Amino acid sequence: MDFYDIIFYLFAVITLASAFVVVTTRNIIYSAFSLLFTFFGVAGIYVLLGADFIAVVQIMVYVGGILILLLFGVMLTNKITTVEIRTGTANVLPASIAVGILAGSIVTVMMWTDWKSKPGEIPITTTKALGSLLINDYVLIFELLGILLLIALIGAASIARREKE
Amino acid sequence: MLHVGLIHFLIISAFLFSFGIYGIVTRKNAVMVLMGIELILNSANINFVAFSRYGNFGLGGQVIALFVIILAAAEAAIALAIVLNIYKTFANVNVDEIDHLKE
User: Fold this and answer.
1) Which residue from A51, A77, A141 is facing B83, i.e. has the nearest CB?
2) Burial class (CB in 10 A: 0-12, 13-18, 19+), B28
3) Which residues contact A61 (CB under 8 A, 6 or more apart)?
4) For residue B46, how many C-alpha atoms fall within 13 Å in the half-sphere facing its CB?
5) Confidence (pLDDT) at A82
6) Chain A to chain B Cβ contacts (< 8 Å)
7) So where are chain B's domains?
8) How far apart are CA B50 and CA B64, in angstroms?
9) At what angle do helices B60-90 and A127-136 cross, to 10 degrees?
10) Minimal CB count within 10 Å: which of A43, B31, B56, B63?
């Protein structure tokens, strides 16, 4: 159990504990802020996996973009001044049983599978290699995602627009 | 077993996925359902990056993880626009009360 393992368990505990808070607390604001810690924990796990660029993108896009969007969604769709900030729950008991079975079966399958894995050496930096992959092997997907982002931008603006009365 | 290997990352991803499913199934608020979806996308991303590191086939998994992050951003923008419209129409965002298509 060396330093790497200790850091890994730290990030694992942060990620899973805050994810648990996200799905169990009844206050939506608490959920949104726990989601922040989940995203940071996942970014730390990416760093441990040697994916430095993905970790930075995770923090920039998820924490800087998606979480802010979610918080705006919470603020705009709840009555902040009253105590309507709580969320109702449904089917808690059947869902817990089903999700427990699901998690147990996934973990069992993963433990029993004989993965042909060997830990590759961690590259010093992945940004240059990722960039050259993006404009060589994956250039078509890259361009399509650019178009998709444009469509999503226009679509979101046109859906959320306030019609003139 | 205490030494961190591929299986540890896969188990974290499996639990994140289960939490995401639980959030989607049990929450009534549409924004909470979105948070569950984000958890699921994150768990898929952990799998991609972990296999990219331990599977020894280059950086392809990390590129796909990048694409998943882009798709998550687009999805969150569209979904929140829809949620805002639902709130304007129904004055709440509880997914079990918005069932006008049933009638």
Assistant:
1) A77
2) middle
3) B69, B70, B72, B73
4) 30
5) 55
6) 233
7) 6-91
8) 12
9) 80
10) B56
H/E segment holding residue B55: none
What fold does the segment set B6-91 form as a domain? Helix Hairpins (1.10.287)
Dist CA B19 CA A22 (whole Å): 9
Q: Please tell me the distance from the alpha carbon of residue A82 to that of residue A109, in angstroms, as a whole number.
A: 47
**Helix spans in B6-59 (H):** 6-26, 30-54
Q: Are A21 and A34 in contact (CB under 8 A)?
A: yes
Contacts of A162 (CB under 8 A, 6+ apart): none
| pLDDT tens-digit map of B89-102 | 888 788 888 888 88
The residue of chain B with its CA nearest to that of A87 is B29
- Give the residue among B28, B47, B50, B5 at the shortest CA–CA distance from B96: B28
- Chain A residues within 8 A of B94 when measuring between CB atoms: 88
Is the CB of residue B7 less than 8 Å from the CB of residue A47? no
Tokens 């330093």, residue located: A3
Between B10, B45, B92, which is nearest A110 by CB? B10
First vs last Cα of chain B: how many Å apart?
56
What is the length of chain A? Answer: 165
Q: Tell me the per-residue pLDDT of A119-164, one tens digit each, with 9 for 90 and over.
A: 666 677 888 888 998 999 999 999 999 999 999 999 988 887 877 6
A70 and B84 within 8 Å at the Cβ level: the answer is no
CA proximity to A34, closest of A77, A74, A4: A74
**Cβ contact, residue pair B49, A28, below 8 Å:** no
The H-or-E segment that residue B95 falls in is: none
